[in-house]
Amino acid sequence: MSAMSNKLNSKLSLPVIISILLHGILIIALGYKFVSDTGENYGSINGNSIDAIMIDPSVMTEQYQRQLQTQVNQQKADQKTQELLDKQIKELAEKAEAEKAAAEKAAAEKAAAEKAAAEKAEAEKAAAEKAAAEKAAAEKAAAEKAAAEKAAAEKAAAEKAAAEKAAAEKAAAEKAAAEKAAAEKAAAEKAAAEKAAAEKAAAEKATAEKAAAEKAAAEKAAAEKAAAEKAAAEKAAAEKKAKQKAEQAKKDKALNDLLGGLTSGTPSSGGVASRKGVSDGELDKYKSLVQNAISNKFINPPNVYRGKTCELQIQIAPDGLLLNVTSKGGDADLCREALAATKLAVIPKPASSLYNEVKTMNIEFQPK
After folding, report:
1. pLDDT of 230-274, one tens digit each?
2. Per-residue confidence (pLDDT) for residue 233, from 0 to 100
3. Does the pLDDT of residue 345 top 60, yes or no?
4. 128-137, 208-217, 286-295: which range is least confident on average?
5. How does residue 207 score in pLDDT terms, banded at 50, 70 and 90?
6. What angle do CA 268, 274, 280 make, to 5 degrees?
7. With bands split at pLDDT 50, 70 and 90, how would you rate the model's confidence at 42?
8. SS3 string of the chain?
């Protein structure tokens, strides 16, 4: 507004300046004309002399009137010029006023337009900032919502995966526990069954061994009794025979003495009968007792070794104590079991007359 006022003031001062300049020029022109008119007839200065001029009063009056008329005309002209100047000044002022009004209007319109533009720009800026803020807020809310949804989805997926993993681990643990329990139960049942079978077998074996031992003891006692009775009978028979032999020898001596020793070289009839010392029947009977003693300690489940044989060589002491036993041939499995049974068997004591024949004997063992 200050720049516009300065511009209007400069436009208003220009006509005034022009008017002053025109008035100044007019006054100078009138003064020059008046001087030239009055001075041309008064005389001139030539060197050092001044010419005298005679002035006619009528001429002076006419001249004065002419000057007055000129002055009046000049004044009229000046008045017209002034009026023209005033008119021009007025027109210039009006024009200046119009230009000022137009300028002020233009300035007002420009200011209004600038204000409107500024307000519009501010409004548009505010709207753009509001839209940007709303867009940013919407984008932020959408991003936060997307992030929240993603986090929720990831959390749900993680929880689901963890739950599935936990369920799988639980199922695997339960399955493993069930399998372990089943295996332990089966093992326990198997162990119990094996233990029961072993206990039953052991009980049966113990019962069998006890029965065999009792049987062997009874047989041994019977054999010992029979052997003792036999030995006693044989001893009594031997004593009787020796007594008879002594009596016969006494008779023979008496007879020899009587006959002069003619019959001294005659062999005794009892020498042929006692050539071997024991009979084959007695030897076979003792070996049968030994085989029974081994069979009492031998276990033949479902007759596995039926029809199989094993040759055993047995060495015993005079009281029947087992000194050594070896396998001389036959079924390997049967021989292995027969050797074990022989080491557990109670071998009957042989008769003293029979010992030399049985201290190292071979037995053809066959399970019953």
Report:
1. 555 556 655 665 566 566 666 656 555 554 443 333 333 333 333
2. 56
3. yes
4. 208-217
5. low
6. 155
7. very low
8. CHHHHHHHHHHHHHHHHHHHHHHHHHHHHHHHHHHHHHHCCCCCEECCEECCCCCCHHHHHHHHHHHHHHHHHHHHHHHHHHHHHHHHHHHHHHHHHHHHHHHHHHHHHHHHHHHHHHHHHHHHHHHHHHHHHHHHHHHHHHHHHHHHHHHHHHHHHHHHHHHHHHHHHHHHHHHHHHHHHHHHHHHHHHHHHHHHHHHHHHHHHHHHHHHHHHHHHHHHHHHHHHHHHHHHHHHHHHHHHHHHHHHHHHHHHHHHHHHCCCCCCCCCCHHHHCCCCCCHHHHHHHHHHHHHHHHHHCCCHHHCCCCCCEEEEEEECCCCCEEEEEEEEECHHHHHHHHHHHHHCCCCCCCCCCHHHHCEEEEEECCC
Structure tokens at 198: 């072993």
Tell me how far apart the alpha carbons of residues 9 and 100 are, in angstroms, rounded to a whole number. Answer: 9
| Closest C-alpha to 209, from 343, 329, 310, 25 | 343
**In this predicted structure, which of 60-64, 86-90, 132-136, 265-269 has the lowest mean pLDDT?**
265-269
With tokens 């695997």, the residue in question is 172
